[in-house]
UniProtKB/TrEMBL annotation:
SUPFAM superfamilies assigned to the protein according to its UniProt record, in alphabetical order: CheY-like (SSF52172)
A biological-process GO annotation: regulation of DNA-templated transcription
GO molecular function: DNA binding
Protein name, as recorded: LuxR family two component transcriptional regulator
Domain HTH luxR-type: residue ranges: 149-214
Residue intervals of the Response regulatory domain: 4-122
Species this chain originates from: Saccharothrix australiensis
Keyword DNA-binding: yes
Organism ancestry: Bacteria, Bacillati, Actinomycetota, Actinomycetes, Pseudonocardiales
InterPro entries: CheY-like_superfamily, NreC/VraR/RcsB-like_REC, Sig_transdc_resp-reg_receiver, Tscrpt_reg_LuxR_C, WalR-like
Record's keyword annotation contains Transcription: yes
Amino acid sequence: MTTRVLVVDDQAMIRESFRVALDSQADLEVVGEAGTGAEAVALALDLRPAVVLMDIRMPVMDGLEAARRILAAAGDEPPRVLVLTTFDLDEYVYRALRAGASGFMLKDAPLADLVNAVRVVAAGHALFAPSVTRRLVATFAERAAGKPDRAALKGLTPREVEVLRLVARGLSNAEVAAALTIAEQTAKSHVSRVLTKLALRDRAQAVVLAYETGLVAPHE
């Protein structure tokens, strides 16, 4: 099955390089390109891509607002939004995750990493740039949260709370299983139940919630 991708960036050369890299893969297809956030919203609603590769800083409408509008208007089958960022856009990244983006990649990452990232988010997983994830989310969750309120977690069992804590620290299902000495399938089931109980789309939103509620302390 081919994954349909919409590429959004205000620089034509970057869009073209992404298109070439993605279209060279048998399982990926670039179905459209947009140079502004407004164009991205219109094309996403028209083309119904599975993944939107979204730059943040663009004219007319930035990628953050475009992502919010795309996800709000998508109904039951929203696309996965993969945000492209640079170090000077940290705060935008945190806000994008809160808006429902499935993860982010650094714009200077190798194209092979970008291709893999598209596949990861298309499969329903969250993806973060490992070198900056915890610093980004922890720092801006700390600013946004004020006094932590764990009321949102009251429906979780003690085991599910621990699973959420481990997910927020960036552990995969296999690593969660190893940490808790349980089967990987059991860990996967725990993660799924946590997301369902908390009405979260994916791990990206789970990470943000864990920091905002104080379950995981910034810089822990």
